[in-house]
Amino acid sequence: MLGSSISIGEGSEMSKERVSNNIRKLRFDHDEMTQQALAEKVGVTRQTIIAMEKGKYSPSLELAFRISIAFGSPLEEVFSYDLEDTDQ
Amino acid sequence: MAQQEGRTIGYLFSGLVSIGLYFVYGVQQYQAGTFDSATISSSWGVAVLVVIGVQIVLSIIAAILVSIIEAIRAGEEQPELSDERDQLIELRGERLSFYVFGVGYVIAMITLAAGVLPLVMFNLIVFSLLAAGIVGNVRQLYLYRRGF
């Protein structure tokens, strides 16, 4: 599986927010773009790209837009957001 | 290892050396029998300033060494880059440092209120300051290793 997700909203009792991304898949679709190349394009370190791909780090809105522009894809194609109800 | 991560290890090392130096000074003073004094002599202030100076110098040396090692490893000089993740990790580390120092400060004030020697209160504040830096760096290192 090439997509990854990250849980945010610590302390939330009613719901669990999940931001997932398709960065890895999109890199491969763009001539197997390296993590370093993407990092340089969007102005972050390679470690930040790795953390995002692993679903460890959720980027700021500004960085999310820069990544979507780098891939020439709409934001919702790169990132997706799910709100899971955990109050069951 | 990223440059920021290497730098954090350097800061951690300098923090440990500083607290070690201060501990050695404290033990020497204790053995000299000056620890039970009701007043705080100026030599303690000098010792704190020396330790802070040593920590600053070691941190600068560590930062230069990490840059050189990274440049050699990568084959060329890499641009200095600190992104939003680095800044968030730094903030989380600093927040924990603040909590540790805050707790140490309150404990120091409690000892003072309880009538313990002012020198104990003084040392508790200095130690909590140095320990706060170390704990903050450990937290940063943990976040770097984990990804975030």
Strand order of the largest sheet of chain A: 1-2-3
Binned strand content of chain A: 15-25%
CATH top level class name of chain A: Mainly Alpha
State the shape of chain A: globular
| Number of β-strand runs of chain A | 3
What's the pLDDT, averaged over the residues of chain A?
Answer: 84
Number of DSSP helices of chain A? Answer: 5
The CATH H-level superfamily of chain A is: lambda repressor-like DNA-binding domains
CATH topology grouping of chain A:
434 Repressor (Amino-terminal Domain)
In total, how many domains does the architecture of chain A comprise?
A: 1
Share in helix of chain A: 40-55%
Main β-sheet of chain A, in a few words?
3 strands, antiparallel
Q: What is the count of helical runs of chain B?
A: 4
Explain this structure.
The complex is a heterodimer of chains A (about 90) and B (about 150). Chain A is of the alpha+beta class. Helix content of chain A is about 45%, strand content about 20%. Chain A has helices at about 25-30, 35-40, 45-55, 60-70, 75-80; strands spanning about 5-10, 15-20, 80-85. The radius of gyration of chain A is 14 Å and the shape is globular. Chain B is mainly alpha-helical and about 150 residues long. Chain B has one domain. Chain B is built from four helices and no strands. In chain B, helix 1 (about 5-30) runs antiparallel to helix 2 (about 40-75), helix 1 runs antiparallel to helix 4 (about 120-145) and helix 3 runs antiparallel to helix 4 (about 120-145). At the A-B interface, helix 3 of A face helix 3 of B.
